[in-house]
Specification:
Length: 375
Protein backbone atom coordinates (compact mmCIF):
# COMPACT_ATOMS: atom_id res chain seq x y z
CA UNK A 1 0.00 0.00 0.00
CA UNK A 2 1.22 3.46 -0.89
CA UNK A 3 0.47 6.49 1.25
CA UNK A 4 0.90 10.00 -0.08
CA UNK A 5 0.06 13.54 0.96
CA UNK A 6 2.83 15.63 -0.62
CA UNK A 7 1.47 18.73 -2.32
CA UNK A 8 3.74 18.37 -5.36
CA UNK A 9 2.52 14.83 -6.10
CA UNK A 10 -1.08 15.90 -5.57
CA UNK A 11 -0.67 18.88 -7.89
CA UNK A 12 0.80 16.55 -10.52
CA UNK A 13 -2.13 14.20 -10.02
CA UNK A 14 -4.65 17.00 -10.53
CA UNK A 15 -2.90 18.15 -13.68
CA UNK A 16 -2.84 14.60 -15.03
CA UNK A 17 -6.51 14.07 -14.16
CA UNK A 18 -7.40 17.29 -15.96
CA UNK A 19 -5.88 15.84 -19.12
CA UNK A 20 -7.08 12.25 -18.83
CA UNK A 21 -10.62 13.51 -18.13
CA UNK A 22 -11.08 14.15 -21.89
CA UNK A 23 -12.73 17.50 -21.14
CA UNK A 24 -14.91 16.34 -18.24
CA UNK A 25 -14.80 14.52 -14.93
CA UNK A 26 -14.69 17.73 -12.90
CA UNK A 27 -12.40 20.75 -13.08
CA UNK A 28 -9.14 20.04 -11.21
CA UNK A 29 -8.47 23.74 -10.64
CA UNK A 30 -11.77 24.20 -8.80
CA UNK A 31 -13.26 20.93 -7.56
CA UNK A 32 -10.04 19.01 -7.25
CA UNK A 33 -8.04 21.82 -5.67
CA UNK A 34 -10.80 22.58 -3.14
CA UNK A 35 -10.97 18.93 -2.06
CA UNK A 36 -7.23 18.45 -1.76
CA UNK A 37 -6.61 21.77 0.01
CA UNK A 38 -9.21 20.85 2.63
CA UNK A 39 -7.71 17.40 3.14
CA UNK A 40 -4.17 18.74 3.45
CA UNK A 41 -5.36 21.30 6.00
CA UNK A 42 -6.80 18.45 8.08
CA UNK A 43 -3.66 16.33 7.74
CA UNK A 44 -5.41 13.58 5.80
CA UNK A 45 -3.32 10.98 3.99
CA UNK A 46 -4.41 9.13 0.87
CA UNK A 47 -3.97 5.35 0.85
CA UNK A 48 -3.51 3.79 -2.57
CA UNK A 49 -3.44 0.04 -3.18
CA UNK A 50 -2.51 -1.85 -6.33
CA UNK A 51 -5.49 -3.85 -7.67
CA UNK A 52 -3.49 -7.07 -7.43
CA UNK A 53 -3.14 -6.57 -3.66
CA UNK A 54 -6.92 -6.68 -3.13
CA UNK A 55 -8.19 -9.93 -1.64
CA UNK A 56 -10.48 -12.08 -3.79
CA UNK A 57 -13.34 -11.86 -1.28
CA UNK A 58 -12.96 -8.16 -0.43
CA UNK A 59 -15.91 -5.79 -0.92
CA UNK A 60 -15.03 -3.00 -3.35
CA UNK A 61 -17.40 -0.12 -4.10
CA UNK A 62 -17.33 2.88 -6.43
CA UNK A 63 -19.10 6.23 -6.22
CA UNK A 64 -18.91 9.98 -6.67
CA UNK A 65 -21.13 13.01 -7.19
CA UNK A 66 -23.85 13.90 -9.69
CA UNK A 67 -25.16 17.36 -10.45
CA UNK A 68 -23.78 20.86 -10.17
CA UNK A 69 -23.08 23.43 -7.48
CA UNK A 70 -25.88 25.95 -7.02
CA UNK A 71 -24.97 29.52 -7.93
CA UNK A 72 -25.01 30.67 -4.30
CA UNK A 73 -22.76 27.86 -3.07
CA UNK A 74 -19.08 28.28 -3.84
CA UNK A 75 -17.05 25.11 -4.17
CA UNK A 76 -14.96 25.82 -1.12
CA UNK A 77 -18.13 26.29 0.90
CA UNK A 78 -19.46 22.92 -0.29
CA UNK A 79 -16.22 21.22 0.73
CA UNK A 80 -16.24 23.05 4.09
CA UNK A 81 -19.72 21.66 4.76
CA UNK A 82 -18.39 18.14 4.25
CA UNK A 83 -16.63 18.46 7.62
CA UNK A 84 -20.09 18.40 9.22
CA UNK A 85 -22.09 16.33 6.74
CA UNK A 86 -20.35 14.35 4.00
CA UNK A 87 -23.01 13.05 1.63
CA UNK A 88 -20.70 10.49 0.06
CA UNK A 89 -20.06 8.89 3.45
CA UNK A 90 -23.82 8.58 3.91
CA UNK A 91 -24.18 6.98 0.47
CA UNK A 92 -21.38 4.51 1.26
CA UNK A 93 -22.94 3.62 4.63
CA UNK A 94 -26.26 3.02 2.88
CA UNK A 95 -24.43 0.67 0.53
CA UNK A 96 -22.98 -1.22 3.48
CA UNK A 97 -26.46 -1.63 4.93
CA UNK A 98 -27.79 -2.94 1.63
CA UNK A 99 -24.91 -5.38 1.14
CA UNK A 100 -24.76 -6.39 4.79
CA UNK A 101 -21.01 -5.91 5.33
CA UNK A 102 -18.35 -3.24 5.62
CA UNK A 103 -16.61 -1.82 2.56
CA UNK A 104 -12.97 -2.90 2.28
CA UNK A 105 -11.86 -0.74 -0.66
CA UNK A 106 -13.08 2.17 -2.77
CA UNK A 107 -12.39 2.54 -6.49
CA UNK A 108 -12.98 5.68 -8.59
CA UNK A 109 -15.65 5.58 -11.26
CA UNK A 110 -13.55 7.62 -13.68
CA UNK A 111 -10.42 9.69 -14.13
CA UNK A 112 -11.32 13.33 -13.63
CA UNK A 113 -10.45 16.39 -11.57
CA UNK A 114 -13.55 16.00 -9.38
CA UNK A 115 -14.69 12.40 -9.06
CA UNK A 116 -11.22 10.94 -8.55
CA UNK A 117 -10.14 13.29 -5.72
CA UNK A 118 -13.51 12.91 -3.99
CA UNK A 119 -13.02 9.13 -3.75
CA UNK A 120 -9.50 9.64 -2.39
CA UNK A 121 -10.95 12.09 0.12
CA UNK A 122 -13.68 9.65 1.14
CA UNK A 123 -11.07 6.95 1.66
CA UNK A 124 -8.91 9.24 3.80
CA UNK A 125 -11.90 10.40 5.87
CA UNK A 126 -13.24 6.88 6.46
CA UNK A 127 -9.98 4.97 6.70
CA UNK A 128 -10.71 2.91 3.57
CA UNK A 129 -7.88 2.31 1.05
CA UNK A 130 -8.48 3.38 -2.55
CA UNK A 131 -7.66 1.13 -5.51
CA UNK A 132 -5.12 2.55 -7.95
CA UNK A 133 -7.43 2.24 -10.94
CA UNK A 134 -10.88 3.13 -12.21
CA UNK A 135 -13.60 1.96 -14.58
CA UNK A 136 -12.48 3.87 -17.70
CA UNK A 137 -8.98 5.35 -17.68
CA UNK A 138 -10.76 8.58 -18.71
CA UNK A 139 -14.05 10.30 -17.90
CA UNK A 140 -17.48 9.48 -19.35
CA UNK A 141 -20.90 11.14 -19.19
CA UNK A 142 -23.06 8.20 -18.08
CA UNK A 143 -22.79 5.83 -15.12
CA UNK A 144 -23.18 2.63 -17.15
CA UNK A 145 -20.29 3.56 -19.47
CA UNK A 146 -17.69 1.45 -17.67
CA UNK A 147 -15.50 -1.59 -18.04
CA UNK A 148 -17.34 -2.94 -14.98
CA UNK A 149 -20.61 -3.30 -16.93
CA UNK A 150 -18.99 -5.24 -19.76
CA UNK A 151 -17.27 -7.59 -17.30
CA UNK A 152 -20.47 -8.56 -15.50
CA UNK A 153 -20.43 -6.21 -12.47
CA UNK A 154 -23.88 -4.86 -11.62
CA UNK A 155 -24.32 -1.12 -11.23
CA UNK A 156 -26.95 -1.54 -8.52
CA UNK A 157 -27.79 -1.13 -5.74
CA UNK A 158 -27.16 2.62 -6.09
CA UNK A 159 -27.93 4.87 -3.10
CA UNK A 160 -28.13 8.64 -3.74
CA UNK A 161 -27.88 11.14 -0.89
CA UNK A 162 -28.10 14.95 -0.87
CA UNK A 163 -27.07 17.55 1.70
CA UNK A 164 -30.63 17.86 3.03
CA UNK A 165 -30.80 14.21 4.06
CA UNK A 166 -32.73 12.94 1.05
CA UNK A 167 -31.95 9.29 0.34
CA UNK A 168 -33.04 7.61 -2.89
CA UNK A 169 -32.05 4.01 -3.61
CA UNK A 170 -32.17 2.27 -6.96
CA UNK A 171 -32.16 -1.20 -5.44
CA UNK A 172 -32.11 -3.20 -8.64
CA UNK A 173 -32.68 -2.77 -12.35
CA UNK A 174 -32.33 -5.01 -15.37
CA UNK A 175 -32.06 -1.89 -17.55
CA UNK A 176 -28.43 -0.71 -17.53
CA UNK A 177 -29.49 2.86 -18.38
CA UNK A 178 -32.20 3.26 -15.75
CA UNK A 179 -30.06 3.94 -12.63
CA UNK A 180 -28.24 6.82 -14.34
CA UNK A 181 -31.53 8.23 -15.62
CA UNK A 182 -33.03 8.08 -12.12
CA UNK A 183 -29.99 9.80 -10.66
CA UNK A 184 -30.10 12.63 -13.17
CA UNK A 185 -33.86 13.07 -12.73
CA UNK A 186 -33.45 13.34 -8.96
CA UNK A 187 -30.51 15.72 -9.29
CA UNK A 188 -32.36 17.96 -11.75
CA UNK A 189 -35.35 18.03 -9.39
CA UNK A 190 -33.20 18.81 -6.35
CA UNK A 191 -31.11 21.34 -8.33
CA UNK A 192 -27.81 20.64 -6.65
CA UNK A 193 -25.35 17.89 -5.83
CA UNK A 194 -26.04 14.31 -4.84
CA UNK A 195 -23.53 11.71 -3.78
CA UNK A 196 -23.96 8.19 -5.06
CA UNK A 197 -22.41 4.79 -4.48
CA UNK A 198 -22.52 1.98 -7.02
CA UNK A 199 -20.84 -1.07 -8.54
CA UNK A 200 -20.41 -3.23 -5.44
CA UNK A 201 -18.06 -6.05 -6.39
CA UNK A 202 -15.68 -8.64 -5.03
CA UNK A 203 -11.93 -8.33 -5.25
CA UNK A 204 -11.97 -11.07 -7.89
CA UNK A 205 -14.45 -9.08 -10.01
CA UNK A 206 -12.36 -5.94 -9.58
CA UNK A 207 -9.20 -7.63 -10.83
CA UNK A 208 -10.79 -8.77 -14.09
CA UNK A 209 -12.61 -5.49 -14.82
CA UNK A 210 -10.67 -2.50 -13.45
CA UNK A 211 -8.44 -0.27 -15.58
CA UNK A 212 -5.31 -0.61 -13.43
CA UNK A 213 -2.85 1.96 -12.07
CA UNK A 214 -4.57 5.01 -13.54
CA UNK A 215 -4.05 7.26 -10.51
CA UNK A 216 -0.29 6.72 -10.62
CA UNK A 217 -0.53 7.28 -14.38
CA UNK A 218 -2.16 10.66 -13.71
CA UNK A 219 0.64 11.58 -11.30
CA UNK A 220 3.28 10.57 -13.85
CA UNK A 221 1.53 12.49 -16.63
CA UNK A 222 1.17 15.59 -14.47
CA UNK A 223 4.87 15.57 -13.67
CA UNK A 224 5.71 15.08 -17.35
CA UNK A 225 3.67 18.03 -18.64
CA UNK A 226 4.87 20.29 -15.83
CA UNK A 227 8.34 20.20 -17.39
CA UNK A 228 7.19 20.06 -21.03
CA UNK A 229 8.65 22.90 -23.12
CA UNK A 230 9.00 23.87 -26.75
CA UNK A 231 6.74 24.94 -29.58
CA UNK A 232 3.15 23.61 -29.64
CA UNK A 233 3.93 21.11 -32.39
CA UNK A 234 6.92 19.79 -30.42
CA UNK A 235 4.85 19.51 -27.25
CA UNK A 236 2.17 17.60 -29.15
CA UNK A 237 4.72 15.12 -30.48
CA UNK A 238 6.37 14.61 -27.07
CA UNK A 239 3.07 14.15 -25.28
CA UNK A 240 1.79 11.69 -27.87
CA UNK A 241 4.97 9.63 -27.53
CA UNK A 242 4.76 9.68 -23.73
CA UNK A 243 1.15 8.43 -23.80
CA UNK A 244 1.74 5.94 -26.64
CA UNK A 245 -0.84 7.84 -28.64
CA UNK A 246 -1.10 9.87 -31.83
CA UNK A 247 -0.70 13.63 -32.47
CA UNK A 248 -4.13 14.53 -33.86
CA UNK A 249 -3.95 18.31 -34.31
CA UNK A 250 -2.59 21.61 -33.11
CA UNK A 251 -5.09 24.26 -34.07
CA UNK A 252 -7.57 26.99 -33.25
CA UNK A 253 -11.30 26.69 -32.50
CA UNK A 254 -13.29 28.31 -35.30
CA UNK A 255 -16.82 27.04 -34.56
CA UNK A 256 -18.56 25.96 -31.37
CA UNK A 257 -22.23 25.15 -30.89
CA UNK A 258 -23.07 24.06 -27.36
CA UNK A 259 -26.07 23.68 -25.07
CA UNK A 260 -27.04 22.15 -21.74
CA UNK A 261 -29.73 19.51 -22.24
CA UNK A 262 -31.07 16.77 -20.01
CA UNK A 263 -28.33 17.20 -17.44
CA UNK A 264 -25.51 17.07 -20.01
CA UNK A 265 -23.40 19.56 -21.94
CA UNK A 266 -23.66 18.82 -25.67
CA UNK A 267 -21.46 20.59 -28.20
CA UNK A 268 -19.93 20.38 -31.65
CA UNK A 269 -16.54 22.03 -32.06
CA UNK A 270 -14.44 22.65 -35.16
CA UNK A 271 -10.69 23.09 -34.84
CA UNK A 272 -8.62 24.24 -37.82
CA UNK A 273 -4.98 23.27 -37.95
CA UNK A 274 -1.99 25.52 -37.31
CA UNK A 275 1.72 25.13 -38.09
CA UNK A 276 2.45 21.76 -39.61
CA UNK A 277 -1.26 20.90 -39.37
CA UNK A 278 -2.41 23.84 -41.51
CA UNK A 279 -5.11 22.80 -43.94
CA UNK A 280 -6.43 20.02 -41.64
CA UNK A 281 -9.70 20.22 -39.69
CA UNK A 282 -10.94 18.25 -36.71
CA UNK A 283 -14.60 18.18 -35.67
CA UNK A 284 -15.34 17.15 -32.09
CA UNK A 285 -18.58 15.66 -30.74
CA UNK A 286 -19.05 16.41 -27.03
CA UNK A 287 -21.35 15.02 -24.37
CA UNK A 288 -19.68 16.43 -21.27
CA UNK A 289 -16.50 14.75 -22.52
CA UNK A 290 -15.14 14.55 -26.07
CA UNK A 291 -16.69 11.42 -27.51
CA UNK A 292 -15.72 11.47 -31.18
CA UNK A 293 -13.29 13.24 -33.49
CA UNK A 294 -13.44 13.50 -37.27
CA UNK A 295 -10.32 14.46 -39.17
CA UNK A 296 -11.20 16.19 -42.44
CA UNK A 297 -14.67 14.68 -42.18
CA UNK A 298 -13.54 11.09 -41.49
CA UNK A 299 -14.12 9.46 -38.06
CA UNK A 300 -10.67 9.07 -36.52
CA UNK A 301 -11.25 8.64 -32.76
CA UNK A 302 -14.39 7.00 -31.31
CA UNK A 303 -15.33 6.62 -27.63
CA UNK A 304 -14.04 4.96 -25.49
CA UNK A 305 -10.68 5.77 -27.12
CA UNK A 306 -9.41 9.06 -25.72
CA UNK A 307 -9.26 12.51 -27.29
CA UNK A 308 -7.18 14.66 -24.95
CA UNK A 309 -7.48 18.45 -25.00
CA UNK A 310 -4.57 20.62 -23.84
CA UNK A 311 -3.81 24.31 -23.76
CA UNK A 312 -0.51 24.76 -25.65
CA UNK A 313 0.58 27.61 -23.36
CA UNK A 314 -0.13 26.08 -19.93
CA UNK A 315 0.09 22.35 -20.82
CA UNK A 316 -3.13 21.90 -18.80
CA UNK A 317 -6.19 19.93 -19.80
CA UNK A 318 -9.10 21.97 -21.13
CA UNK A 319 -12.63 21.44 -19.82
CA UNK A 320 -15.21 21.26 -22.60
CA UNK A 321 -17.37 24.15 -21.27
CA UNK A 322 -14.24 26.32 -21.41
CA UNK A 323 -13.72 25.79 -25.14
CA UNK A 324 -14.29 29.13 -26.83
CA UNK A 325 -13.96 30.37 -30.39
CA UNK A 326 -10.38 31.43 -31.06
CA UNK A 327 -8.87 29.21 -28.37
CA UNK A 328 -5.81 27.17 -29.34
CA UNK A 329 -5.82 23.46 -28.55
CA UNK A 330 -3.51 20.49 -28.73
CA UNK A 331 -5.43 17.30 -29.56
CA UNK A 332 -3.95 13.89 -28.74
CA UNK A 333 -5.57 10.55 -29.62
CA UNK A 334 -4.87 7.66 -27.23
CA UNK A 335 -6.11 4.04 -27.43
CA UNK A 336 -8.26 2.98 -24.50
CA UNK A 337 -7.22 0.10 -22.26
CA UNK A 338 -7.72 -3.46 -23.61
CA UNK A 339 -10.23 -4.20 -20.83
CA UNK A 340 -12.54 -1.53 -22.23
CA UNK A 341 -12.26 -3.10 -25.65
CA UNK A 342 -13.07 -6.48 -24.11
CA UNK A 343 -16.15 -4.88 -22.51
CA UNK A 344 -17.27 -3.63 -25.93
CA UNK A 345 -17.40 -7.22 -27.15
CA UNK A 346 -20.20 -8.07 -24.70
CA UNK A 347 -23.88 -7.31 -25.26
CA UNK A 348 -24.11 -5.05 -22.19
CA UNK A 349 -20.89 -3.25 -23.02
CA UNK A 350 -21.85 -2.65 -26.65
CA UNK A 351 -25.15 -1.10 -25.54
CA UNK A 352 -23.54 0.94 -22.77
CA UNK A 353 -20.94 2.51 -25.08
CA UNK A 354 -23.10 2.81 -28.20
CA UNK A 355 -22.54 5.98 -30.21
CA UNK A 356 -26.24 6.87 -30.27
CA UNK A 357 -25.85 7.70 -26.56
CA UNK A 358 -23.95 10.82 -27.66
CA UNK A 359 -25.75 11.57 -30.91
CA UNK A 360 -23.67 9.64 -33.45
CA UNK A 361 -24.38 6.65 -35.68
CA UNK A 362 -20.99 5.03 -36.01
CA UNK A 363 -19.56 1.68 -34.96
CA UNK A 364 -16.50 1.58 -32.75
CA UNK A 365 -13.18 0.90 -34.44
CA UNK A 366 -9.80 1.20 -32.70
CA UNK A 367 -8.06 4.53 -33.19
CA UNK A 368 -4.83 2.90 -34.39
CA UNK A 369 -6.73 1.24 -37.25
CA UNK A 370 -8.60 4.42 -38.16
CA UNK A 371 -5.43 6.49 -38.17
CA UNK A 372 -3.71 3.79 -40.19
CA UNK A 373 -6.52 4.02 -42.75
CA UNK A 374 -7.85 0.50 -42.21
CA UNK A 375 -11.20 -0.70 -40.92
Amino acid sequence: MRKFSERKELEWMLRGLGILGTGGGGDPDTWGASIIDADLAKGRVYQLVNPEEVGEDALVVSGGYLGSVAEDRALDRVVDEWEHSFELECALREMETLIGRRIDYLVPFEMGGGNTPVILSAGARLGIPVVDGDALGRAAPETQMTSFIGHGVKLTPMPLVDSKGTVVIVKESNDIFFPDEVGRFVVSTKRGLMANSHYPMSGAELKRSVIPNTITKAIDLGGFVTSLTGQPGDKLASLSEHLEGFPLLWGKVTVINGENRGGFYFAHVRVKGSGGFKGRTVDLTIKNEVMCARLDGRPIVIFPDLILLLDPDTNKGVMTPDIKEGRELLLVAVPCHPRLREALETEAGARAFASDRYGERIDYRPVEKLIGGTS
